[in-house]
Amino acid sequence: MSCQPPAVEKVRPEVVLEIDAYWVAVGGADPVAVVRGFGDRVRFLHLKDGPVSRDNLEQRPAGQGRLPIDAILAAAPQVEAGAVEFDEYAGDIFEGIAASHAFLAPRVAGVSA
């Protein structure tokens, strides 16, 4: 079974994709398989973590939840940029972003502080 929705096959090949790995997981799909399935078209990733639920206040910094962040990154070596973000966050948003950055920086080549 292909990870690509049929509509994506109709989009011109030069159109690249941005995937929110957390919401892929919340939707019931395997984010690693989805990212890998779209191949080189995935150029941007949204990375947050958590228990993989629809409760936005449960979202956590990267590395503090159930997402296989290292495997997601490995499935997308062509990614040009990532977004560390939360839809909502129960703690201090700046501390959450800093924690995500601290977790992700050593895992991603070319990330600057």
Summarize the structure in words.
The protein is an alpha/beta fold and 113 residues long. Helices cover 32% and strands 12% of the residues. It has 5 helices and 3 strands, in the order αβααβαβα. It has helices at 6-9, 21-26, 31-38, 69-74, 93-104; strands spanning 17-20, 42-47, 81-84. The termini are far apart. The mean pLDDT is 90.
Structural class: alpha/beta
Oligomerization state of this entry?
single chain
Helix content: 25-40%
CATH architecture: Alpha-Beta Barrel
* Number of separate structural domains: 1
List keywords for this structure.
12% strand; isomerase activity; Sugar phosphate isomerase/epimerase family protein; 113 residues; alpha/beta; globular; TIM Barrel; Xyl_isomerase-like_sf; 32% helix; 3-stranded parallel β-sheet; 5 helices
Give me the secondary-structure topology.
Blueprint: H1 6-9, E1 17-20, H2 21-26, H3 31-38, E2 42-47, H4 69-74, E3 81-84, H5 93-104
Parallel strand pairs: 1-2, 2-3
In short:
The chain is an alpha/beta fold.
